[in-house]
Amino acid sequence: MDLCKIQMERLIIDHAKYRFDRFGYKKTTMDEISKDCRISKKTIYVYFKDKEHLFHSLLWYESHKAKNYILAKTQESDDPVEQLKILIKTTEEYFNQNCFLIRLLNDEQALYPIAFQRKYRQEVEEALVPLIVEILTQGKKNGKIRDIDVSSVAYAGLKMFQCYMQTRYLEQETKNLGCSVTVLIDLLMQGLLRNESISM
């Protein structure tokens, strides 16, 4: 892909993210985004056919940026148990720093269409589930993780983590913090590891 095209798409997506995060999908207009970018609306339509296409491109970009960051962190260790712990901690840190993604999932003010929330969940699952499956599979091979259905466990574990993050976000809003990510890691490790492999 042409470098100038990539740079222009990134410029538009970055400014669109700010608008969508602050005002929601429904109240954000392409006119506002074009003014923020200091380009014409016609130029935006060269790269994105409409606002929905732009928003979905933003979701794809954010989910893959998260995947690449988390993947790089997990590769700092060769041990699948440590990789799981790193994955959970890194994912929490990443999403805490990118609250737009959590706000999109919670969306108490109905700023985003429900279909878009589902699309984002799908993007996250497609980005992270294969990574979790790979780690669990390696853990089974070296005998540290019990004999489990890695695909089902990866999906269930991700859903559990999503619930944890959404609840955590609400607790931060009300300053009523509950359990830390360490508790979640301990819970998951107790369920996944063989007894001789459990060491927190």
UniProtKB/TrEMBL annotation:
Swiss-Prot/TrEMBL keywords: DNA-binding
PROSITE patterns: HTH_TETR_2
Presence of the UniProt keyword Translocase in the record: no
Matching Gene3D superfamilies: Homeodomain-like (1.10.10.60), Tetracycline Repressor, domain 2 (1.10.357.10)
Domain HTH tetR-type residue range list: 6-66
GO BP: regulation of DNA-templated transcription
Ranges annotated as DNA-binding: 29-48
Example of a GO MF term: DNA binding
Residues making up the signal peptide according to the UniProt record: none
Listed PANTHER family: HTH-TYPE TRANSCRIPTIONAL REPRESSOR SCO4008, TRANSCRIPTIONAL REPRESSOR
Protein name, as recorded: DNA-binding transcriptional regulator, AcrR family
